[in-house]
Every structure is written in C-alpha cells, then in structure tokens.
Amino acid sequence: MTWGPFDLSGKAAIVTGGAMGIGFGIVTRFVEAGANVLVADLDGALAARKVAELEGPGKAVSMAIDVAAPEAGDRLVGECVGYFGSVDILVNNAGIYPMTPMLALTRETWQRVIDVNLTGLAFVSKAVATRMVEQATGGKIINIASIDSLHPSMVGLAAYDSSKGGVLMFTRSFALEMAPHGVNVNAIAPGAIATEGTAAPLRGSGMTEAQMKAMMDQFVAGVPLKRMGEPDDIATVAVFLASPASDYMTGDIMVVDGGVLLG
Fold first, then answer.
1. In terms of CATH, what superfamily is 4-197+229-256?
2. Which of 57, 58, 110, 176 is 20 to 30 Å apart from 216, CA to CA?
3. Does the pTM of the predicted model rise above 0.70?
C-alpha cells in the first residue's frame, strides 16, 4: 500500500491514550503510514501488549503516563526523542468522560476531567511544541475534541463538555501562536464512536442494559449515516492532519460524526 501525500515515513509521533479505542486506531494507521510511534497510556501494561500486535513499516514503543501529571509533557518528549531522535507529531487523545449530572457532580470529579482533558492536553502540547521549535522543522499537533465542543449531546456531561469546549478554543489560540514556527495545530471532533470504553459512563450511571441499549439505538437513529463510527473513521483523518496533505490547515476542527450536527 502506498500512502502518497499521506506518507509519514521517518516521522516520530506521540499518541496519548494510545492503548485502546480511537487512540489505538490512530497508532495502527500511523505505523502503517511509516511513522515511529510512542504509545502513551495510563495503562502501561495494556499499551505494551497492544504495541506487540502492530505491523507495518513504522516502529512503536510504549510507556505508562498520566497526562495530568505536571511532568508529563517533559517525560513524553524525553522518551520520544530518546527512542526516535525527534518529535514531529503529537496526538492529544487521552481523555475521560464520567457521566454525572452537574447537580450530583463533585468538585473532585470536575477537576479530574479538566486536568486530564484540557490542562494535561495544553501542557503536553507546550512541551512538545517547545521541542518542535528547537528542532526548527515544523510539526503537527492534533487534538481530539468532540462534537460536544460544539453542541451538548446529553445531560450528565457538563464537565466533559466544558473541557472539550476548552480544547476547541485552545486549538485555535495555540494555532495562532505556533503558525510562525511551522507547527500546525488542528482538532478532530468525533461523534459517537464504538470503542471498548463507549458504554463505561452509561454503566457507571446506574442504567440497566436495556436502558443503555435503548439510548444507543435512539442515538444511532438520529445519525444520518445510520451507524456508530469506528476508531478507523477517526484514525484516517488523523493521518491526513499529520501528513503534508494538510500543510495549509491550522486552527481548524474537523467534525467526523456521520452527520449528527446537521440536525
């Protein structure tokens, strides 16, 4: 398979939350496109197992990390440079989405969501962008936002929606700052994607299996393309944004939702 203008050969990438779901879908496509990838995840053991499954011209290594930790950005940069010699691509995919109505939400849960989804993303971006400026060869930063950056999906996601709204504005602001350095900063806004963790917030909400199925069926009925998305639907867009094919794009958000926001 030839990747043409989407070829990532020789590029070094960091993908946070890369051990499952959308993150692992992106890792898989990056490796196929020739990139060398640092798969960073809170579950380091899972990341190591998933790396062993990968096939392609690119290489992959794993590390355990909490992106909300103050030293996370510097550690990620150090590991990536240590293994591959540079950092050319960052995908900020790590995120959490506990489903709790605001009237029942604790300050601790709110803060953890913001710390992981927004503050961690911002300061990992800062560390990586600093390295990209030092390298003086440009780079690509891709933030995984959400359609909830633009429109709330349901009750119970106030913290998540607030964090993802922040991701959108951070993407736009940081794109302005990094443009003179040749670093493109863009975001992807997925809709409902079928992953291992999709049902976790619903199960934690106390819903029965029948109630969860009814909710998901109702959601899919409102998707113009009449299906849930798959991780690869996001991964292929991430390859585009990481490649030279998107060199004249920055500060943009690409909605990948099967048409949900058309309604």
1. NAD(P)-binding Rossmann-like Domain (3.40.50.720)
2. 110
3. yes
Closest residue by Cα to residue 42 from 15, 64, 22:
64
| Cβ-proximal residues to 68 (8 Å cutoff; 6+ apart), any chain | 112, 115, 116, 119, 120
**Per-residue tokens: 238:** 């991430």
User: Catalytic: which of 83, 97, 160, 248?
Assistant: 160
Is residue 131 helix, strand or coil?
A: helix
Catalytic residue check, 160:
yes
How far is it, in rounded angstroms, from Cα 65 to Cα 50? 15
Q: What is the pLDDT along the chain (263 residues), one digit of tens a residue?
A: 678 899 999 999 999 999 999 999 999 999 999 999 999 999 999 999 999 999 999 999 999 999 999 999 999 999 999 999 999 999 999 999 999 999 999 999 999 999 999 999 999 999 999 999 999 999 999 999 999 999 999 899 999 999 999 999 999 999 999 999 999 999 999 999 998 766 565 555 577 888 878 878 888 888 999 999 999 999 999 999 999 999 999 999 999 999 999 97
Look up residue 36 and give its DSSP letter.
E
Q: Give the DSSP H or E segment for 140.
A: strand 139-144
Q: What are phi and psi of 53, to 5 degrees?
A: -85, -15
